[in-house]
Design a protein that fits this description.
The protein is α/β, with parallel strands linked by helices and 477 residues long. The protein has two domains: 72 residues, no CATH class; 332 residues, Alpha-Beta Barrel (TIM Barrel), CATH 3.20.20.70. 50% of the residues lie in helices and 12% in strands. Helix 3 packs across helix 7, helix 5 crosses helix 7 and helix 10 crosses helix 11. The longest helix has 22 residues. It is globular.
Length: 477
Amino acid sequence: MSNVIRDMLAEAGACVELFIGKPQNSEHYELTVRDETALRAFGIDVLINKAVFGTPEQQRAARWLVWELGQTLGVHPSSIHELYIARGRNALPHTFTTPAMNIRIMSYDSMRAAIAAAIKGKVGAFIFEISRSEMAYTEQRPAEYTAVAIAAAIKEGFRGPLFIQGDHFQINAKKYLTGPDAEIAGLQKLMDEALNMGFYNIDIDTSTLVDLDKPTLDAQQKLNYELCALFADYIREREPAGVTVSLGGEIGEVGHKNSEVSELRAFMDGLKQHMQSAHGISKISIQTGTSHGGIVLPDGSIADVTIDFDCLRDLSEAARDEYGMGGAVQHGASTLPEQAFGKFAQAGAIEVHLATALQALAYTRLPKAMNDEMTHWLFKNEANERAAGDTDEQFLHKVRKKATGAFKRQLWGMSDGDRIHVREGLQERFAMLFNRLGVENTRSYVDSFVTIKEIHKQPEDFGAQPVVKEDVSAFAD
């Protein structure tokens, strides 16, 4: 492994020095940055490309190098738990909503754009996240996703806590009802993988088990809070020393019935009875009228969505005042009109999840030949996803995400000019979102409340994990 690391550092311009010791009869590696300017200008690009597209041994070495360079330069995967709990005890103003951004396409460039906008706006409260289903079709496992986030931060000169989140770590209701042990074990395995790779923020989504046909609210939420408690305790037992992972629960599936305060109370009261850990969850995801990806009309435009901001406000207040959480979380919001985003902060929402519109914007700025090739591939390979009566635009809106993994290498390999064109559009969009959501100048809040934990690893901690081929059609994005 040492030869692989040395070769990689030489290719990256010899801007990092490697020290090898042998404590307890095993190799121990340490890094020193000799030339940060050269690392940011060229070296980190070499390393992250090896981390994503190299051989398994190169991936393992490069992912370790990026992690350790992050620790050396002050880029630390962290938990946002303390910031959210501070909101819950009114130690912070309720004037900002943290954007949690699902990065599906051109992840290195997309994250660079977000971080550049964050640095310019002095934004500390922002999250990069990826769901179980997105890991499959974008071909990004946690080890790769974290490496890309850290590398993007190094490239842009970011320092401080970097919040990386597992979104919709979800139970498949049908599989649970026929084989609960296997379904639980599968999700726990994903949690282990994510925790080991710096995902110190995890949204536990067992809301798929809510049964609205049950006669009482407690009965409707029972499986939801019991399984959420089980997974929360599982994570608490495995989180790194000195890190309190930020955990979220969910009381209603996105796209279904709007949530009510009474449902929140039924869920939280049951969760508190079943959780063994002293630290509970820091936020609660609810349904207020949106759906993942929005609803596309036959001409390709997005249908107007009426969000119940009163519901969002009431549930955020109850989450804070009665349970000490940061507030409620809004899903499926990226396709809303620009003027709507300010309303999330006004309603006291703690977090909003953004995905589809960011992906769509990147597509519009791709070279025409690349876009055409991806579109042709979708018509050929995803035709089974086309519903009866779908127009071409409706079909493409639904399946465009499926090409992000299949074309990952081509997208990363575009010319510098084409990649800059995509980054410029995304950075402008991120800046707008940060402004509307009120997270500009939140870096001081993050620095005041969030504990940074330096965590060092060794190359053997980083497996070159293959893409997991599983049926994720039942999972949320």
